[in-house]
C-alpha cells in the first residue's frame, strides 16, 4: 500500500540522544564553517580536514551512550502499527531511526556510516575512520572514497520517491528541523498542496511555521510519543 503519512525529521530528533544539531547554540555550524566542511569544493581543497570532521562524528555515533530516544521509538512503533503507510524521510546522517526499529526510512542527506566511491558510486561501510587516501575495492583507484553525505549544492537522495509520496500523502509531520535547508524546507508546501494535514513538532517555531496547519513546541521525546500514540 502507498504510504499515507510522511514524517520529515531533522537534527532536533536526535538532540536528546546526545548528537549535536547544526544551528542551535553549541551546534556544529558554530565551530565549523559550512564552506570548510560541507561543500564539494571543501572536500576537493582539503579532503583530510573534511574526513576528519566526519570521522569525529562517526566516533561520536559509536559512543555506547548514544542511543535512540523515545521520539525515534515512537515513530518505529507507528510504522509497525500501520504497516506500509509510514515513510520517514530523515535529513539526519545518523542511524538512530533504524536502531529504534524504523524500516521505511529515506536518508535524503546520506548516511555517516557509509562511504561512496567517486568513480563508480559504489557504497561501502564506513563504521571506522575513513582515510581519504584509501582506495575503493571496486575501482581500485586511490583517494576516491568520499563520505556518503549530501553537501550544499548537491542533489539530495531519492527525491523522485519523496515527491511522489508527498503528492499522495494525507498527513505530513515535521520533527526537529529548523526549516532552513531546501528542498526539505519546501516539503510542507508540497504536502499541503496535495491536501495533506501538516504538523510541526519542534523545540521552537521553525522558519516554515506559517506553512503548517498546526504546531506544537517542546522536546521531541515528549511531543512525538504524545502526538503519534
Ligand atoms: C529540537 C530539539 C529537541 C533542537 N526536540 N526539536 C536560496 C534559496 C533556496 C535554496 C537555496 C538558496 N541558496 C542555496 C540553496 C540550496 C541549498 C539551501 O537550502 N541553502 C539554504 C541554507 C538557503 N540547498 C542545497 O544545496 C541542497 N541541494 C539542493 O538544493 O539541490 C538542488 C535541488 C533543487 C530542486 C530539488 C532538489 C534539489 C543540499 C542541502 C544539503 C544539506 N546538507 C547538510 C549536511 C549533511 C551532511 C552532514 O550531516 O554533515 O544537511 S547541512 C545540515 O542542515 C544537514 C541537515 O540535514 C540540514 C538541516 O538541518 P536541521 O536538521 O534542520 O538542523 P538544525 O540544526 O538547523 O535545526 C534543528 C532544529 O531542532 C532547531 O529548530 C531546534 O529548535 C530543534 N531542536 N533540540 C525538538 N530536543
TrEMBL record:
Keywords associated with the record: Cytoplasm, Metal-binding, NAD, Transferase, Zinc
List its EC numbers: 2.3.1.286
- Where does the Deacetylase sirtuin-type domain start and stop, copy by copy? 1-229
Q: Does the keyword Transferase feature in the UniProt annotation?
A: yes
The cofactor binding remark recorded in the entry reads: Binds 1 zinc ion per subunit.
Q: Where in the cell is it found?
A: Cytoplasm
What are the binding positions for NAD(+) in this chain?
A: 10-29, 91-94, 176-178, 202-204, 220
What are the names of the required cofactors? Zn(2+)
Q: Tell me which InterPro entries the record gives.
A: DHS-like_NAD/FAD-binding_dom, NAD-dep_sirtuin_deacylases, Sirtuin, Sirtuin_cat_small_dom_sf, Sirtuin_class_III, Ssirtuin_cat_dom
Catalytic activity entry: N(6)-succinyl-L-lysyl-[protein] + NAD(+) + H2O = 2''-O-succinyl-ADP-D-ribose + nicotinamide + L-lysyl-[protein]; N(6)-acetyl-L-lysyl-[protein] + NAD(+) + H2O = 2''-O-acetyl-ADP-D-ribose + nicotinamide + L-lysyl-[protein]
Question: What's the stated role of this polypeptide?
Answer: NAD-dependent lysine deacetylase and desuccinylase that specifically removes acetyl and succinyl groups on target proteins. Modulates the activities of several proteins which are inactive in their acylated form.
Task: Quote the record's domain comment.
Answer: 2 residues (Tyr-54 and Arg-57) present in a large hydrophobic pocket are probably involved in substrate specificity. They are important for desuccinylation activity, but dispensable for deacetylation activity.
Q: To which protein family does this belong?
A: Belongs to the sirtuin family. Class III subfamily.
Name of protein: NAD-dependent protein deacylase
Which organism encodes this protein? Alloalcanivorax venustensis ISO4
**Per UniProt, what is the name of the gene that codes for the protein in this document?**
cobB
Amino acid at each position: 500500500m502507498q504510504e499515507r503519512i510522511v514524517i520529515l525529521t531533522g537534527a532536533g530528533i536526535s538532540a536528546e540522544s546526545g548528537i549535536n544539531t547544526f544551528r542551535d547554540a553549541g551546534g556544529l555550524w558554530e565551530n565549523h564553517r559550512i564552506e570548510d566542511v560541507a561543500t564539494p569544493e571543501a572536500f576537493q581543497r582539503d579532503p583530510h580536514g573534511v574526513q576528519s570532521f566526519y570521522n569525529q562524528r562517526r566516533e561520536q555515533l559509536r559512543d555506547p551512550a548514544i542511543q535512540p530516544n523515545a521520539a525515534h521509538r515512537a515513530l518505529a512503533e507507528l510504522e509497525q502499527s500501520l504497516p506500509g503507510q509510514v515513510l520517514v524521510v530523515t535529513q539526519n546522517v545518523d542511524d538512530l531511526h533504524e536502531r529504534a526499529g524504523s524500516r521505511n526510512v529515506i536518508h535524503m542527506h546520506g548516511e555517516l556510516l557509509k562511504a561512496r566511491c567517486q568513480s563508480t558510486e559504489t557504497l561501502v561501510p564506513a563504521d571506522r575512520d575513513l582515510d581519504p587516501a584509501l582506495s575503493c575495492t571496486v575501482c581500485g583507484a586511490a583517494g576516491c572514497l568520499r563520505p556518503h553525505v549530501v553537501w550544499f549544492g548537491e542533489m539530495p537522495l531519492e527525491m523522485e520517491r519523496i515527491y511522489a509520496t508527498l503528492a499522495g500523502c494525507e498527513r505530513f509531520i515535521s520533527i526537529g528541523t529548523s526549516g532552513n535547508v531546501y528542498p526539505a524546507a519546501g516539503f510542507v508546501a508540497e504536502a499541503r498542496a496535495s491536501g495533506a494535514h501538516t504538523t510541526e513538532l519542534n523545540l521552537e517555531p521553525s522558519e516554515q511555521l506559517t506553512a503548517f496547519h498546526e504546531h506544537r513546541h517542546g522536546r521531541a521525546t515528549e511531543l512525538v510519543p504524545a502526538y503519534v500514540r
